[in-house]
Amino acid sequence: MLELYMLASGSSGNAVYVATENTKILIDAGLSGKRLAKALAEIGTDAAALDALLLSHDHLDHIYGAGVLAKRYHLPVYATQPTWNAAGKRLGGLPADLRRFFAAGEKLVFAGLEVETFPVPHDAAGPVGFIFRQGGRAAALVTDLGYVTPYIMDCLQNLDGIVIEANHDEEMLFNGRYPWPLKRRIGGKTGHLSNVMAAECLTQVISPKTKQVVLAHLSAENNLPSLALDTTCSRLEAAGIATGKQLTVRVAARHEPSCRILFT
Ligand SMILES: [Zn+2]
Ligand SMILES: [Zn+2]
User: Fold this and answer.
1) pLDDT for residue 52
2) How far is the CA of 154 from the centre of ligand 2 (A)?
3) 61 CA to middle of ligand 1, Å?
4) Are 241 and 247 in contact (CB under 8 A)?
């Protein structure tokens, strides 16, 4: 069994619950410790039952509650050395026995759940994406990246499930009220994936094995769930990939648990 559950998604906070029969981990903790515990309770689990917290990168929408959660539940926190360095004070109070390190590209194993990590181009220190593998099933979690590198494209091949960022609609970003430097940052090579970029990537990596796609980390300002979904589905269909019963495409909710993926 491999389960992924989006607890919250977007610049107001990110967290993803990943579980198998034997382990429960959390990827990112970008909400307050209290809200994370509440979200976990809503999906029928308990923060005290978590085995580990993994951090994708040091931005606040991914680490906001990490320190509080880790200390309260004595949870080991895994992050790259650059993430630890950059997260500074926010995670500074964590006792040494809860600090774990991995290198981007390293594979971690939690009671049989394999977690592959890979570097992503994003304006943070040592940011990573993840592939989870258990019992022949595999799913990816990749958000906060400016573009899909050839290496990431390879990592995403032949998966059962893909959670990918669809941050913004390019026109909404361009015409929106953000100042130009911020627009350039978001749309740049180390910013965030647009709907079109996510959709183009999906047309290259979806195989007959792929059953679930979740669009994540949508901008509140420069995107709409319906637009992300329409852009993706129409591009997939133009590429001859039918969506519907065989392949579900959903959009992760911003503030509450959504888009459970369960492979049995
Ligand atoms: Zn983010
Ligand atoms: Zn980020």
Assistant:
1) 98
2) 22
3) 5
4) yes
Q: Is 92 a residue whose pLDDT tops 80?
A: no
Q: Residue 39 belongs to what domain range?
A: 2-263
Nearby residues of 42 by Cβ (< 8 Å), 6 or more positions away? 256, 257
The SS3 of residue 261 is strand
CA of 244 to the centre of ligand 2 (A): 31
The tokens for 242 are 């039918």
CA 199 to chain centroid, in Å, comes to 16
Q: What is the pLDDT averaged over residues 98-112?
A: 97
Query: How many whole angstroms from 124 Cα to the centroid of ligand 2?
Result: 6
- How many Å lie between the centroid of ligand 2 and the Cα of residue 213? 21
pLDDT digits (tens, 9 = 90+) for 156-204: 999 999 999 999 999 999 999 999 999 999 999 999 999 999 999 999 9
pLDDT value at position 89?
79
**Å from CA of 203 to ligand 2 middle:** 24
How many domains are contained in the chain? 1
Measured in Å, residue 122 CA sits from the centre of ligand 2 at 7
Sign of the alpha-carbon dihedral angle for 209, 23, 105, 194 = positive
The answer to whether the predicted template modeling score (pTM) of the entire model surpasses 0.85 is yes
The pLDDT score that the predictor gives to residue 93 is 83
pLDDT exceeds 80 at position 88? no
Residue 45 sits in a domain whose CATH number is: 3.60.15.10
Helix (H) or strand (E) holding 175: helix 170-175
Token digits for 10? 């977007």
Residue type, 86: A
